[in-house]
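REQUEST
  id: r-88c1
  op: predict_structure
  target: NUDIX hydrolase
  payload:
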Amino acid sequence: MTEQAEPRHTVVVGCLVRNDKNQVLMIRHRKRGWEIPQGRVEESEDLLAAVRREVAEEAGVEVEVGPLAAVWSMVSPGSALIFAFLGRYLSGELNPTDDSEEAAWVDETQALEMVTSPVMRERLAVLLNHDGSISYRSYSLKPYQLHLELNLLSWPQ
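RESPONSE
  id: r-88c1
  status: 200
  body:
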């Protein structure tokens, strides 16, 4: 009998940040193009601290982290859990760092037009259409394929 390997998952956080004009914060990643601020959770870091750090690193601004809006489970290649939150801009000037090439405040329609990756576009659309529930989706890449979609708050009572 072969020994089972320990599961290895990458944990990622993302945040749809809005300012007082209801504009959305977008960053341009050097490889993936335009997307919401997001990145890996570091060892011994909690999810909310990771969200605040990633937004600050990628866009140079501070945010108030709001509700968890969606969870994605990437099942191949590799495994990743992506926790996406809603957030509100608090302070700071847009100042992208090494993690991103550009940051911008844009309206929802423009944000969707800017995103070229099917995965990131779907992620942005889910967050823009947040209805108070938590969306759960399982997917794989190469090619992008959605396997499961649930509303976690619609479980029968």
